[in-house]
Amino acid sequence: MKKWPIRWDLLLRYRMIEIVALWEGRLTTNHLIQSFGIGRQQASKDINSYLADIAPGNLVYDKHLKGYKPNESFTPKLTSGHADEYLHILSRRDDITVTFDDLDMGFEHTAMIRPVTRNIAPEVLRPLVQAIRDKKRVDICYTSLKDGEFVERIISPHTLVCTPLRWHVRAYCEYARDYRDFVLSRIHGIPDINDNAAQGKQEDTLWNTNAVIELTPDTRLSDKQKAVIEKDYGMVNGTLRIPTNASLVHYLLIAYNIDIHMQKYNPQGQQIVVGNMDELMPYLAY
């Protein structure tokens, strides 16, 4: 084990090694190459030095996977082993390569409030990530909030979705014969990967339907109050346009604390409203 402080850039890469190995169940040099813009030789050196200096025996090379997988005795050394860490990386992959959010960078006079991620086990997430990557069907045991009963479902997952309060997987459900959102914390046991997916992302009509949410200041506010809200949200000509897809409209409205029955709130509490609700209603009823 290293006795001296680890350079911050190397620490970030070590943390990535632990997080990806634990939650995806497969680590390759490409994970480091694509995330940090380093060469293959450096990526390989990082993995080897992690195993030599930080956590000997934590990872084993699997020829079938063509990468490293966590040993049965895997113990995080530089991370907490909580799903938040992996899901946070996923949420930033599209727009940032390296994240500093979980590191103590010495800023003492700041505080961040984050919702607690619901209970998610690596054993649940790994098969889903693999199924999405390899376009496979998965058997899951799921508890619906409707009746609280365990049900068996065969799904073809295509995307993990992060919302402010939960994570779910978007998947084709063979029982419903349609696409559904399955909350990760309501999946029990270990998902069983099967053969090729029945349906993919390209057949998910709602997912592939573009939508735009138009947020405006609550009409009951005064002009001066509206100006404050417009500045708060960076609105252009009194409107904030948020591009998304039809299957995510509901979650985005929740994220902005928008209730479609907004008339029961006072204008100072509501602050913003949806300016094109008529266009979005068909996506809120499915």
TrEMBL record:
- Which residue ranges does the record assign to the DNA-binding transcriptional repressor CapW winged helix-turn-helix domain? 9-91
Task: Outline the extent of the DNA-binding transcriptional repressor CapW C-terminal dimerisation domain.
Answer: 213-280
- Read off the InterPro entries from this record: CapW-like, CapW_CTD, CBASS_pafABC_assoc_protein, WHD_CapW, WYL_dom
This protein's name: WYL domain-containing protein
Start and end residues of each WYL domain: 123-189
Output the superkingdom of the source species: Bacteria
